[in-house]
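JOB MANIFEST
job_type = single_chain_structure
chain_count = 1
residues = 299
[input]
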Amino acid sequence: MNTKYLYLILISIFIIGCKNQASKISGTIQKEEARQLITDTVTLKTTAQSNVKVVEKQFKIAGLDRNRQIRVYLPPSYHTSDKKHPVLYMHDAQNLFDKYTSYSGEWEVDESLNQLAKTSDIELIVVGIDNGAERRMNELSPWKNSQFGEAEGKAYMKFIVNQIKPYIDNNYRTLADKNNTAIIGSSMGGLISHYAIYEYPEIFNKVGIFSPSYWYSDDVFTFTKNNPIPKEARLFLLVGKKEGQGMTENTEKMHTQILSSNHPKENIHMIIDPEGEHNEAFWKKHFTSAIEWLFTNKL
């Protein structure tokens, strides 16, 4: 073979090889850049503060055969002290800390409590339990509804009391007694929170009942009448005039019923907000006030 042609063939092979290698390197770089971009996007797309963590462990709800995620907020000083803290349990955790996991906006629980820690002695641990999506209505009611079907609220609350609370008390520095254990929820979460303090008065002594779905079942009124709670239990009721579905009337009815059971007036506080609508912005607006009243009797 002519030496000139051999030389040209070798040069061509070399150039093609370099192009292939360069293509492989470029592809690797592009993949890495894409991976980093995705990571950065996920990192950026969160409004949760750094003291909120998603617990990696998945918890199986006994009796319901499904797993559940929880999210934990720790006070700003948690890692720089050995102090123990009260614990607040909340439902619909996807909506509490991060607008990118929420359905329609977040409560900003973490921002509110971080600010409160700067201006007061209130430092709480918050345990948010994710809702069950399409099973949410069932999980958050202890009573059956003809439209929405079976009630799973009793199993859900047993899950919190028997599985989640022991895990939290064993893994975090908590004040585990009832006087330092609260529960707050809105809508169906308000209904199950109402049930929680009446069914487990030895566990919860403070409750925030926001926009409660008392319309879901009249059984809540009978249950409340038949299960009076300790006089020292503190109840914060919130409802908005613009929520519809008889929300204000039902909440006023429950407030009157609780007072008629001789529960001390100073231990039940109700707010009827004339501009209140059924959404996270409304609940966020009153969250700090609820915490201050429940834990310090301050409004």
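[summary]
Residues 2-11, 18-43 have pLDDT under 50 and may be disordered.
The chain has eight helices and ten strands.
exit_status = 0
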